Amino acid sequence: MLHSKVIMKKHRKITLPCLPHTFCILLQLLFLVAKSSAKIPAIIVFGDSSVDAGNNNFIPTIARSNFEPYGRDFDGGKATGRFCNGKIPTDFISEAFGLKKYVPAYLDPKYNISDFAFGVSFASAATGYDNATSDVLSVIPLWRQLEYYRGYQKKLSTYLGETKANETIAEALHLMSLGTNDFLENYYTIPGRADRFTPQQYETFLASIAENFIKSLYGLGARKISLGGLPPMGCLPLERTTNVMGGNDCVARYNTISLEFNEKLKNLTTRLNQELPGIKLVFSNPYYIMLHIVKNPGLYGFESASVACCATGMFEMGYACSRGSMFSCSDASKYVFWDSFHPTERTNSIVASYVVEHVFTQFLK
Ligand SMILES: *[C@@H]1O[C@H](CO)[C@@H](O)[C@H](O)[C@H]1NC(C)=O
Ligand SMILES: *[C@@H]1O[C@H](CO)[C@@H](O)[C@H](O)[C@H]1NC(C)=O
Ligand SMILES: *[C@@H]1O[C@H](CO)[C@@H](O)[C@H](O)[C@H]1NC(C)=O
Ligand SMILES: *[C@@H]1O[C@H](CO)[C@@H](O)[C@H](O)[C@H]1NC(C)=O
């Protein structure tokens, strides 16, 4: 077994921000496994605020978080543009694969190709599969993230040489994490899409964009791809706050949409693995682990799952969750959610290690 061999070789202790009990041991074990097998040379990220490391700081949009109290538990208390008090899932995944501690934003001038060669995020908060979603707050649409990726490949070829760059692209883990905004920021909020599509037709429309995107990545040499599913969207504090009739419980119809859409993405994954030779496409589903945390916060050491840490925890995100906001909690690690739409660092760490353990281990073989 890979596990035991690695453990025998290396007894390095790695400390992580995680729970007491067995979960922590499991996580450290995974880190040991990952540190010793450099099968993944880089992590390449596409998506929305779940994985944006600060690209929106460099475009004209109000969908930003590069101010306090965002990042107050990040390395040095820096507000980087991550929608979190600390690290986002891709940072934990990068570390789990023995790469850098963070995956930097492509548009951030503090970084260059010598950093991006190990990991890069093209993600943009408030974007979606649908162009109409990225239009709402003028953020980076998915098709432009692909354009950036083409530019990145050119730079990588110059930096590493074409042979090594091609190898890196083929071995790198490409992560896609988006879709929530298509429903909550667009379909159910802005007039237009709901006149044209039923929710189920809209799911199919989005899945076809995901399919074309994966085929484009494949055409550009990517082989290891993770297609991220939706979390239980109805359990985001913002949705619970507005669910007054439902006693501020999770909004069932939004969770149903998440489940339906996830099933479509899962089926797409099965089909594309058959159609595209050499591809290793996985479906990473955060739904059940997130729902389990939200329904059983105490099991994970959390005190609250229904309201967020920042400000009143009921509505605020972005500029509404700012330094001036009173009431913010003092210890974010007791909360499942940081702002009304985004998990805390601790939740991100739990979900990331769950995905590494249950889905990404096959990339280490
Ligand atoms: C990247 O930036 C570092 C300093 O921040 C610099 O030393 C290095 O030469 C740069 N590399 C490239 C390839 O531009
Ligand atoms: C989104 O916009 C881009 C650029 O205009 C276009 O190429 C693409 O076809 C559009 N996608 C969809 C699904 O309409
Ligand atoms: C690198 O990949 C590109 C695109 O797939 C291909 O055209 C090129 O021949 C490859 N170069 C090397 C040196 O393998
Ligand atoms: C997904 O695939 C399963 C098994 O082939 C099938 O029963 C199901 O109807 C499919 N679901 C969707 C949403 O396409």
UniProtKB/TrEMBL annotation:
<dbReference type="Pfam" id="PF00657">
    <property type="entry name" value="Lipase_GDSL"/>
</dbReference>
<dbReference type="InterPro" id="IPR001087">
    <property type="entry name" value="GDSL"/>
</dbReference>
<dbReference type="InterPro" id="IPR050592">
    <property type="entry name" value="GDSL_lipolytic_enzyme"/>
</dbReference>
<dbReference type="InterPro" id="IPR035669">
    <property type="entry name" value="SGNH_plant_lipase-like"/>
</dbReference>
<dbReference type="GO" id="GO:0016788">
    <property type="term" value="F:hydrolase activity, acting on ester bonds"/>
</dbReference>
<comment type="similarity">
    <text>Belongs to the 'GDSL' lipolytic enzyme family.</text>
</comment>
<protein>
    <recommendedName>
        <fullName>GDSL esterase/lipase</fullName>
    </recommendedName>
</protein>
<dbReference type="InterPro" id="IPR036514">
    <property type="entry name" value="SGNH_hydro_sf"/>
</dbReference>
